[in-house]
Amino acid sequence: MSTMNQAKVEKYRNDFLKEVTANVEEGEWVKMCMQCGVCAGSCPFGPYWEHPPQEIFMMIRAGKREEVLTSTSMWMCTSCYNCIARCPRELPITHIMHGLAHYADRLGLAPKNQPTRKFANLFWNNLTKKGRANELKLGIALYFMNGFIEGIKTALKMQKMGLNMFKTKRLSPMELLGGHGIKDTGGLHAILKKAREIELANAEKFNG
Amino acid sequence: MADIIATNETILVVGGGISGMTAAIEAAECGKQVILIEKGPSVGGRVSQLYKYFPKLCHPTCGLEINLRRLKGNKNVRLLTMTEVSEVSGEAGNYSVTLKTTPRYVNENCTACGACSEVVDAEFDDAYNYGLGKRKGAYLPNKMAYPQRYVLDPQIIGTPDATKAKEACKYDAIDLEMQEESNTITVGAIIWATGWQPYDANKIQPYGYDRIANVITSVEFERLMDPHGPTGGKLLRPSDGKEAKDIAFIQCAGSRDRNYLKHCSRICCMASLKQTTYVRERYADEGKATVYYIDIRAIDRIDDFYQKVKADENVTFIKSKVARIDEDKASGNPILHGVNTEGYHRYANQHDLVVLAVGMEPSVAQDEFPVKVTINEEGFIEQDEANGAIFAAGCSADALDVNRAVQNATASALRAIQVVNRAAGMEG
Amino acid sequence: MADEIKIGAYICQGCGIGDRVDTAQLAQVAQRDAKASIVREHAFLCNAEGVKMIQDDIDNEGVNRVAICACSRRAKTEAFNFEGVAITRGNLREGVIWIRPDTDEARETTQDMADDYVRMAVTEAKYMTPPKGDDNTKYTPKVLIVGGGVSGMTAAVEAAKAGYQCTIVEKSGALGGAAAKAWKRIPQHAPYADPEDTGVAELIKAVEESDKITVHLNSHLTKTSGAPGRFSADITTESGSTTTENFGAIVQASGYFEYDARQLPELGYGKSANVVTQAELDAMAKEADGGPIKTKDGKEVNSVAFIQCAGQRSEKEGHLPYCSGHCCLTSIKQAMYFKDQNPDIDTNVIYTDLRTPGAGGEDFYRSGQQKGITFTKGAVSEVVASGDALEVKFKDLILDEDTSEKVDLVVLATGQVPNSGVDIEAMAAVVEGEEDGAEPEEPTAVQVPVESILNLTYRQGPDVPHLKYGFNDSHFICFPYETRRTGIYTTGPVRRPMDMQQAIEDATGAAMKAIQAIENAAKGRAAHPRSGDLSFPSFRREGCTQCKRCTVECPFGAIDEDEERYPQFNEERCRRCGTCMGACPVRVISFENYSVDSVGQQLKIVDIPDEFEEKPRILALACENDAYPALDMAAMNKVEYSAFVRVIPVRCLGSVNLIWITDALNSGYDGVVMMGCQKGENYQCHFVRGSEIAHVRMSKVDDTLQSLSLEPERVSVHEVAITDIERAPALINEMAETIEKIGMSPFKF
After folding, report:
1. Which of B 181-220 lie inside 8 A of C, CB atoms?
2. In chain B, whose CA is at the least distance from the CA of C633?
3. Statement to judge: residues A54 and A136 lie in one domain
């Protein structure tokens, strides 16, 4: 258990709703849910979730901390915003899902092999390095996400498309060497660092 | 209408639905002078469009008949139809009210013989049946209509139909020259009872009311059951006129929803429970009903009605706000998608017909009030001393069922009487 | 009015009547057969000229009975509205030409029909007297209010504001009732976000400051007699001194009892001091007055569970079968007591259906959530006291699992039990049962101390009849204040479960009805539903056999018995339904404008063709409020029915006297059809039991039929609704077919 997680458990004891309210982006909305289930029914990925949003909200109220934070469910959100559009209480459900995922990640409770989570991490790391997505590196990283053999197989399978993309200049092999980026990478990193500080400070403020 | 006699001891009641009629009659039976105005051509309001009342399953027209008899027999009430308030000034005990009366094109000579209707060709959507059927350009609003007098649709004025109607009338009852009239009267107190309208179901896009023929509203469903209605009392669905035996009821269609109406409309749960009994009434064991709900609000003594419906094995309850409705193109059946939140069960259910339990929206939009009163966010008139002697009655005050609306209207009548009695110097 | 009867008969030719029937013949019939003094035909009777013609006859010719033979009595009422005369209507339009085909074959029977309706209208007029009203009316502009809680005080203050004197009788030593014990109330104004002051103190102040309101504390009613306009009440104090006062009307605001939570041991009540009811919690909050609410043993509360529907909405023995309506909002209010004082206190509301209706209700629910109150859809099975804490065991209905929650305090949302006095119908049933030697009925599930509230001296019992579950509610959706005791209106939670805001609205309306009863009584006018009717029942004492049927059957308890055991009519209590008239076996009861003769002579003047003409006659007696309008509307739809029927509207099927049936059969009618309203639990009869009583009476008509050797099928009784526009005509046609099958009556002369 991470120290941060340990600290949160001690701090909120069994009041998980309070913990979510304080620590999760838009988490203060969770208490406003009236369990109508329109979000659960509206989600295009609904059938693939273990727990739909409305159920997660109930689990939060019921204090099911472990189950919620280790759940793969909120990682399934593709930000289609159907739930937000239809929620009769105007809960920013999409944001809450991302908030919960992010919080679980920070606490080190997020499921390790959840594919969208892996994708998200790869994408983020790829993007933040130079401020531009390096599609070649991202593609390759995704091919090899599940191991070397798997990576080779996928690469071979995609070979033709890759070549076509090279030919039509949709992809440059030069990207492998560093690749293009924004002018002031340092500035971007400073912004991201500051953002993280603010976020942590906010979390601490709630905690305090 | 120069003969309207009104003083600061007169009570003006705006709206001739059940609440307005009640307020007017109750005050008049106390000996007060009342002017009752109604925007439409006849009194009775929304309740006259209902098939049955919950929880007794009795017919609204039965009580309406009594109220009409009370109204007809009481000389203290002056009824003005096709009339609206256009302006109000003054203060409690002394209001000056301008009334606008639109032409009916039919005078009191009308015997309701129906000859004009027979010769007129033009047909229009019948508002009494929520557009489910057509009516002639010369028409009696409904069989219970009071005044029992025909109306010419303004759209036929200037057309050959109007002339034909006039020629067909043996009693010189059709007056094509009738003009809009404006009258200013003095009254002591005003009871505002303009009621409600069903929430516009087109706005609830995921339910496809505008796209799927077999998705209708709860008020339309009432018309299907009514023997005076467009199907003569048969439960036939719009797409193909087939009998609808498996019917879904969707609660909170527009209510308890910040995207539409944020308030709970109170009546819809009981109304849907009542309507499940219609399905059973028409089809006995073949009739099936499914109610999709968030909370069943069968409030107070009448919760037993819910218990009774719940015990019916042909009625299923699913705790779920339906997410969206598709149509099965081949059968025309609506398919409901959503999640039963009691234990998380996903469903895609087909029904013959879907009834949207649409919410109650106050009839007068917030910015269209001709009087200065305190209105809450939901559009209902708050009880507030700042309103002076303008008192809301019925669904102008809140989303109310008939029983509570009448109760509230009776209370409003007393509030108005207090003012006019003060004006009359009756109090000691 | 010892005036000479002078009948004017007016026959309209408009709306096709003149084209379809021979109105000259109708005029002749009116004069020759029915003996009208003046008979006039008019091409268009309801226009100004036609109306003037009639008015001139009234003014100049001394016409005092007007028989209008034109359209239905429901049509053109504005035109045919003459003062000081008796008016009858012969229904030639809706009753004849609109329900018969316009064919040569039908012409003769259509004319017969019209002839008869003219005869009937003129004859009815002959046997009617324009009611002149009661000379002995009393104006007592004073309202007696029983109960000094929010409902009672509101009724008093509102009636006083309209200029009426009020007297409140309160059995306890203080005004305020249950509401005075509450800390705050559910908000009544936008934004409906926070609990607000109860307003009880202000209300008490308004009562005390009003020079129109008198309050009797520690008092109750030991005797109430009389009728609207002249009630007499004995107000007795605890010490036993009694004062007698007169009142015009009564408002019963006797409130409710708290449900006895000791019947809920499974929810820990009585086992732990930390399981309390909502009422008890409000008392605790009042005690804390904004500070931390503490348990009985003085500990601070960190977590509370509210259990909704405790002992309510349940068929279990000892539970209330209904929902008390206010408890969801009350729990939200009470959870706010905790949250507003300390947001860290956990408050969980466990419910099955959260009921927060209207604009204010939903706003308040959201406000509660905003404040961090949690809501769990769950079914509680048990509350276990374990050490200091309480364990609430419940099934979480959303997560579909059995679970539990440990809390410091449990609040049970128990219901309201009406304080509605003696259940006079159950009492009557017990008495009847004892007379039959049967065991008395099982006592009702929820036991409350039963003391009479009003101690009425009425023959039918000391209190207002209960409707359901002990509530004194009205049965009618459209007429929520109507009780079965004229001039006595019930209000507040005695009528149905409700919160303070509803009680205030309800009591204002009840005050309105009380005032109206006073004004009506003073003028001798009937109350709803025959509002304004000035007639009242009179009875011929010398003919009375003291059989008591009228006193027993009157749905409104209007008839007492005098010392000599004769019926004693209380006009002001009477609703003019005529059930007494229908009940009387010796036919000594009648109204000026409705009597055994006014109907009986109509059916006798109908021309009964002899057997060989093959024109049977069917008498239809139709309730004027539902069946008759249904037939009218059928006519508007041009639904055809038998030309052999003669329809007579009756005030209520309960007013139908058996003699009419016997007379009809004796004089050669071939069938009799009666149409009343739905009876039974969900009765639609506006006079409550009229239809039911008629059905019972008519079940005995078989004896009559047997004695005449007639087939039982010749008489039928139906429940008909106002919407039965197809069925009502069909029932008539059915009788016509039956007659065709079984043949004509042998009693034709």
Report:
1. none
2. B143
3. no
